[in-house]
Amino acid sequence: MGPCDRRTFLRVAGATGALAALYGCGTASRKASGHVVVVGGGYGGATAAKYLRMWSEGRVDVTLVERNARFVSCPISNLVIVGEKTLADITLGYDGLKRHGVTVVHNEAVAIDADKRSVRLADGDTLRYDRLVLSPGIDFIYDNLPGLADAAAPETVLHAWKAGPQTVALRKQLETMPDGGTYAICIPRSPYRCPPGPYERASLVAWYFRQHKPKSRVLILDANEEVVSKKALFMKVWADAYQGIVEYRPQSELRDVDVAKRTAILEFDRVRAHVLNVVPPQRAGQIAQRAGLINVNQRWCAIDWLSMESTAVKGIHVLGDATFPAPTMPKSGHIANQQGKLAAAAIVNLLAGQPPSDQPLAVNTCYSFVDNRNVIHVASVHAYDAATGTLQPVKGAGGVSASPNEVEGRFALAWAKNIWGDMLC
Amino acid sequence: MKTAFVAALAIVAGHAGLAPAPVLAVDTDLARNLAATCANCHGTNGRSLGGMETLAGVDKDRLLAKLREFRSGAKPATIMHQISKGYSEAQLELIAVWFAAQK
């Protein structure tokens, strides 16, 4: 399934032509040329690839390097885990980008030579670039969780924090779990990908248990001091709708995992679960490390917010969860998509010999399901502040839902449809 | 169209009470870039794929009035009252002009 159909594309292409007529004279798009390689076809990279083609009016060549044949969305994947959606519902192809003239290479980038401006692929091919966009997402840090090196871990103790086979596997574990069992989810210290995601998952699993396995429990083992996103809303849902099902334990950092016993080892406690779901600590994807881009806390890539260009290596723009975020900016798909546009606009200008915009702005919206229909949101707006050289949250803007509601349940699904279209159609 | 765009830029400078900025410092694609922050929900160039309002081709005055009502709280909303407060009056005007031109 997917929103990309031929008619959508024609409408988009028509709009691009109209734009050329509207703003053609004197803007960067007329003068930009060159080759941009984009590594990573998720919310950030796919958006950057499409908008580079659109905003340069086809003058900038774009090659997208993506190891997976198809895109699988993390947002909405918690609905797959509880059987309300299928993996097919959250999977899209890259044909829409090809229609924009993006060359899509399904391969893995293994090395970057910033001096020669080239990317080496796993199959030995080399791609030269004028500018590189790196949107590698996150990798997991297992250094302090040696138990997860157990050969059985990938099938037994799942993360399901990168949508795909593990999403389906976690669904199966919940289905086969006997009633009266315990599902435990371990949350790492912030920052991690999708701040409200673990709490949404816990809520949805509780909803599933209430329908199908009413004697079962959900245990949230959170390394953080408190719920890090939509705290009051989630706490109220757990106290009201899922009383006796959900137990929340803050300051419960995972020290190790006994995979064979499905046991979470905490500082003063060991917790055995029937289904143990560990979201490990995270850092920027490995290719960012190999390229020397990680320069904050040995985990994240600092960027110049006017151009999204790395502060460590010139000519490389970093997007999405891999970046060291601006104040209060979450690691979300929505933000990655917005950053993809900021990077595309800046790169089109730079390739035309013009400075990037001096007033970038980004919006975030994260919807979370608390059952199969009712949703809560958090929203924020971030504007460039020259004094601090970063995007700052706009005072007075943003906020959360008053309470879970079905209207936003419909908006959440429409959000998915439209953002998938915005990046891939 | 081009006249409208240039006028909109003048509004930005006027609203902010700034001295005329050097030509190079002006983001000539500002309206396009600001409008693109709406696309996640409302579709690329304001062409919704369903479940959200299409903004492309909406009359400028109508869209601006609606955005102002969201911002003031006069119009009930689930989320737009919070997001619209993140933009200045001049930015909302740029966005409204840009979407109106997407026929």
Largest sheet: spatial strand order of chain A: 5-2-1-9-21
Secondary-structure element sequence of chain B? Answer: HHHHHH
Percentage of residues in helical conformation of chain A: 25-40%
* CA-CA gap between termini of chain A: 13 Å
CA-based shape of chain B: globular
Helix content of chain B: 40-55%
Provide the residue-averaged pLDDT of chain B. 83
Class computed from helices, strands and strand pairing of chain B: mainly alpha
Low-confidence stretches of chain A: 6-26
N-to-C CA distance of chain B = 11 Å
Number of helices of chain A: 12
CATH architecture of the largest domain in chain A: 3-Layer(bba) Sandwich
Oligomer: heterodimer
SS field, number of helical segments of chain B = 6
Q: How many extended strands of chain A? A: 25
Look at the structure and name the CATH superfamily of the largest domain in chain A: FAD/NAD(P)-binding domain
Task: Indicate the proportion of strand residues of chain A.
Answer: 15-25%
Q: What is the alpha-carbon Rg of chain A in Å?
A: 22 Å
Looking at CATH, which topology of chain B would you report? Cytochrome Bc1 Complex, Chain D, domain 2
Number of domain modules of chain A = 2
